[in-house]
Amino acid sequence: MSGPGQRVLSLLRKMIMGGELAAGQRVLEIPTAELLGVSRMPVRMAFRVLEQEGLLVRQGVRGFSVRPMTMDDLIGAVEVRGVLEGLAARQAAERGVLPDFKATLVQCIEQGDRLFEKGYVTEEDLAEYHDINRRFHHVIVEASGNEAIAMALARNSQMPFASVSALSVDREHLQQEYRRFNFAHMQHHDVVEAISLGHGARAESIMREHANVTLRYARLMEC
């Protein structure tokens, strides 16, 4: 997704999570584009992604409504993701990672390092990290060799904020976001190390804690 599209997507996620777009509220393409001061295309793309993430429900041909959800819904779905991804990391460590998977994980680490080494991030950096993060999590599931995990994650990702792609960014506090995402990236380092050493239990523990970062941020957004 383009930079403008990613910004619209992040802003709409934040508006839904913060209650600016209320549960059950109907959202339409043109009024939303006018509200955000953008063209219809990034709004249309964002709506499609938010529907896939379970935050919007299609209403008719062109409209959507905000899916009703509670903090308990979010907590349950993210905890399930943590369990599933933790299992994937453990199985990847125990079975050994194929060279192609290992190379992709290392590439994700190196690309993330380059983003965070300067001590701050821009909106463009965070859009790039979004792609790195999504690829990192996908490869760990692939490396587990367990198709049932991938299927369960796909089903769980239909719940609000459960998808690893559902990264909400606070554009007004980028230094705070730098600390948050840099911490998550350091956890990526630890996961890769544990998997490489064959330490399945540690890899699983880190991945489950990694999901908890999402929960802590969601609780802050709710306040």
Could you say what the CATH topology of the largest domain is called? Answer: Four Helix Bundle (Hemerythrin (Met), subunit A)
How would you sum up the global shape? Answer: globular
Order of helices and strands: HEHHEEHHHHHH
Radius of gyration, in Å, reads: 18 Å
Give the strand order, joined by hyphens, for the main sheet: 1-3-2
Beta fraction of the residues?
under 5%
By secondary-structure content and strand pairing, the structural class works out as mainly alpha
Per DSSP E runs of 2 or more residues, the count of β-strands stands at 3
What's the structural domain tally? 2
End-to-end span in angstroms? 29 Å
**Count of discrete alpha- or pi-helical segments spanning 4 or more residues:** 9
What is the quaternary state of this protein? single chain
Low-confidence stretches: none
CATH architecture of the largest domain: Up-down Bundle
**CATH superfamily grouping of the largest domain:** GntR ligand-binding domain-like
Q: Report the helical percentage.
A: over 70%
CATH class of the largest domain: Mainly Alpha
The biggest beta sheet reads: 3 strands, antiparallel
Please give a handful of descriptors for the protein shown.
Arc Repressor Mutant, subunit A; mainly alpha; 223 residues; 2 domains; globular
Describe this structure in words.
There is one protein chain. This protein is mainly alpha-helical and 223 residues long. It folds into 2 domains: 3-66, Orthogonal Bundle (Arc Repressor Mutant, subunit A); 71-222, Four Helix Bundle (Hemerythrin (Met), subunit A) (Up-down Bundle). Helices cover 70% and strands 4% of the residues. It has 9 helices and 3 strands. It is globular, with a radius of gyration of 18 Å. The two termini are 29 Å apart. The mean pLDDT is 88.
